[in-house]
Give the backbone structure.
Amino acid sequence: MEIRFIGSGDAFGSGGRFNTCFLVTGSRSRFLIDCGATSLVALKHQGIDPNSIDGMVISHLHGDHFGGLPFFLLDARHMAKRVRPLFVIGPPGLDARLAATQEVLFPGSSQTALGFSLKIDQLSPEMRCQRQDIAVTPFLAEHSAGAPCFSLRIECDGKIVTYSGDTEWTERLVPAARGADLFICECSSYERSFKGHLSYLALSKKLEQIGAKRVILTHMNPDMLERRLTLAHETASDGTIVKL
């Protein structure tokens, strides 16, 4: 399995980074974890054909995590001429929020036939959801987006990849990432506490308890980016590739 960081940035594009988007390539499936507003541009910048993607898993409904989906669908219909199905797995309310966002950005687009099947599955906390050869178990995150926000435990090819989503520290991160082959964790700040987000100093005290085999930090603001080469843990950049 390969994980490519298409976008490793925060909502503000700190460091010139694209919004959150990770491409997972397994033996039988290829899917995105989150699809932030800049993700279609970032995919094309890295030479990734959107038609090669089977689907996506969305952690929460903030624009820097799901706002690229309307652009992805518009491109699929008009430019990529997609014909094969696309699945999207995400929080309750995803279908309504997606339609509303499409109408704000491109009026009428939510009612226009796509030319391919779009299957949306809505997650329930700690209920395992299977789609093709991947399984997703969501854990409630401490974050607010007008709908439930999740940390995602994803099984594929006998490996476990956990993505924290955006969240303050919560004990639910422990079962979400326990023993994971890769724990991708947001780390918005180094020391300062921001509501709904993790700081490095708070997170680093908890990682031994979680026991993930590998940890990579992402979604960093400027004070984390300034320190990233001196940290004791790995950090992501746009284009980073991890093989499991």
Residues 79 and 232 are 43 Å apart (CA to CA). The radius of gyration is 17 Å. The domain at 2-243 is CATH 3.60.15.10 (Metallo-beta-lactamase; Chain A).
